[in-house]
Design goal:
UDP N-Acetylglucosamine Acyltransferase, domain 1, alpha/beta, 2 domains, five-stranded parallel β-sheet, six-stranded mixed β-sheet, elongated, 15 strands
């Protein structure tokens, strides 16, 4: 018991720069208090003392502002930061080394008793403030849930879910976009992140520009091949019969398209 408590205090001091001493963490961190009381409630629940488990859970909710159902399974070194308003449902499972911020709900969308109604968080998952993770799916190891996201489907390992409803950003695609942004001298991630519309627009433009690089390279290769052929053919043979050699701008046709 005390070894587990020391482990919890150490993980909080590691992840929270505001934590100065072990005594401060032990006496002033409601996330730690909620987890300690949950272990007692969970032990009562597993022993068949369901009412007592619910009563301990209710007392912990009153004291900390964090509601954890006594049947929920929580791994080691879990950090609930600030914690006010956190709700963790009956069939929720939280893996080791997860971090959960205030206002998070690990809830269900089904009313079927006995079913897996609440999410499973893999090892090392980070759930941002006020995120709502709803359903009996799995959030993969090392995944991140953005603040305010509403997640109703599985999240792959290492991916990020943002927005309402959430969209999944794969780690490899995100890294490729940031690499392209760095080559262009701009990184949207360095300025702002999450669901800011300007940042999302910039990221979309950067991703689109990066996808064109390969096509442009292929076009240059084709041009070089055509140039070599042009040197070998008469000038009149290099122009296709249906080629538009003069600019023809049809304003009326463009107006009909955009209406």
């Amino acid at each position: 018991m005390f070894a587990r408590l020391r482990e919890d205090i150490a993980c909080i001091r590691e992840r929270d720069p505001a934590a100065r001493t072990a005594w401060e963490v032990l006496t002033c961190y409601p996330g730690l208090h909620a987890l300690v009381l949950h272990r007692l409630a969970h032990a009562c629940w597993r022993a068949g003392l369901c009412w007592l488990g619910r009563f301990v859970s209710h007392g912990a909710r009153w004291a900390t502002g964090i509601e954890i159902h006594p049947a929920a399974s929580i791994g080691r070194r879990v950090f609930i930061d600030h914690g006010m308003g956190v709700v963790i449902g009956e069939t929720a499972e939280i893996g080791d080394d997860c971090t959960i911020y205030q206002g998070v709900t690990l809830g269900g969308t089904s009313l079927a008793k006995g079913a897996k109604r609440h999410p499973t968080l893999g090892r090392g998952v980070i759930v941002g403030a006020n995120a709502q993770v709803l359903g009996g799916f799995t959030v993969g190891e090392g995944a991140r849930i953005g603040s305010g996201a509403v997640v109703v489907r599985a999240v792959p390992p290492g991916a990020t879910a943002v927005g309402n409803p959430s969209r999944i950003i794969e780690a490899e695609a995100d890294a490729a976009r940031e690499a392209a942004a760095a080559r262009m001298g701009f990184s949207a991630y360095a300025v702002t992140q999450g669901d800011d519309p300007v940042a999302l627009a910039m990221k979309g433009l950067i991703g689109n520009a990066a996808s064109h690089e390969h096509q442009i390279a292929l076009l240059w290769q084709a041009i070089e091949k055509l140039s070599q052929r042009a040197r070998e053919l008469p000038a009149e043979a290099c122009v296709p019969q249906d080629a538009h050699t003069q600019e023809r701008f049809d304003a009326e046709r463009l107006t009909r398209l955009v209406k």
